[in-house]
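Q: My labmate handed me this sequence with no annotations at all. I'd like to see what the chain might look like in three dimensions before we decide whether it's worth expressing. Could you predict it?
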Amino acid sequence: MIESDRELSAMVQELWDNDINRLKPGKDYRISLQVHNTHNTRSSPSTEDHLGKAGDSLAINDNNDGAGYPLFTYVDENIFKKETFLAFISLLDNYESDTGEPEIVTPEEVAENYKFLDSIIQTPTMKIAHKYLVEKHLSPEDKTQFKEQLYRIWFELYARRGSSRPDSSGFEHVFVGETRGRRTVIGFHNWIQLYLQEKLGHIDYKGYSVNANSPQPDENKHILALQFSWKNGIKPKGSIFIGVSPEFEFALYTLCFLTSPNERVKVQFSFYDVEIVCHHYNQKHIGTTYPVLLKYQNTEKLD
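A: Here is what I predict for the chain of 303 residues:
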């Protein structure tokens, strides 16, 4: 196990403490974990996205649903009127989900991408991340240049495995989700997309996912490993933050991508010991990134 990165942990704690748009479990949203699903203990988190193998270990059909009800039982949608949420949600319909299908990025979509970046760099979490990255000589101090760096990391298209044409981006993979061969879901590590797609009837929540070492999930905590189907494809094991703001995830993952040559970094913050997996693509782009909950800390800190 990677030694916990103390400096990065302190930064993530600062991001967490300043995530003013984070939702409160039980108040702003409620989830229903329902039954434990034991089908997926063979899936290794390390293969989850990067190798695309997890889908091979599991055969599920809609009659074999470990959970009978949706994951989200309530979300206060007024939250989605906040500027960063609004800008984030506007990006979710800009992508062709199947890998191998080339992405056509319209001028309107480019403008939406920049509008999102404009909105998040005004937030406390992104300001903290930017300041730290400038101090480490990893990002330009100039805001316009910083936005260009973020655009390149997250929105610039590249060809994912098996494709000859640009068909993917870090943002699409992590926040929107993709399908491979229309049968396996890859990426898709964002709770807002999960909620909106579930509301539309496109998500079938199969239950939460634990292995021998991971803690039982908690409806009042902000990290969950789960299994679901989307657009006829299966996500055998996905791991996501729940209830956090788009800017928190963007800041956290950008920090991990730029500061750590390792593709896994262990951080401690709030209630959580977490491994952040962050695979680089050609060292220029994010291939995938997501949290893996290692354990809950015994702490009196307020969430």
